[in-house]
Write a structure and sequence with these properties.
single chain, about 80 residues, alpha+beta, 5-stranded antiparallel beta sheet, about 35% strand, elongated
């Protein structure tokens, strides 16, 4: 098992200081996608103006392995 850290910026930066033990990088990606989808469901509809959420996955050495982002934009026409 390896420890992965999931840092999030949803308008404020939140550093994951505990991490999560997972079998490999692919499992970390799956965990990140699930977590980001939940955050988007909870945060984006209530934010004003619409915003974005970015997540970075780090390994135990602190190396960033991947970045995931979700955003919502609204365009209205008269």
């Amino acid at each position: 098992m390896q420890r992965f850290f999931f840092d999030v910026d949803d308008g404020q930066f939140h550093e994951d200081t505990e991490g999560t033990s997972l079998r490999d990088e692919e499992a970390a990606l799956e965990e990140a996608v699930k977590a980001l989808a939940e955050m988007a469901r909870d945060l984006i509809p209530t934010s004003s103006p619409p915003s974005s959420i970015t997540m970075w996955v780090r390994d135990e050495a602190g190396k960033r392995l991947m970045e995931l982002a979700v955003s919502l934009s609204i365009t209205r026409w008269p």
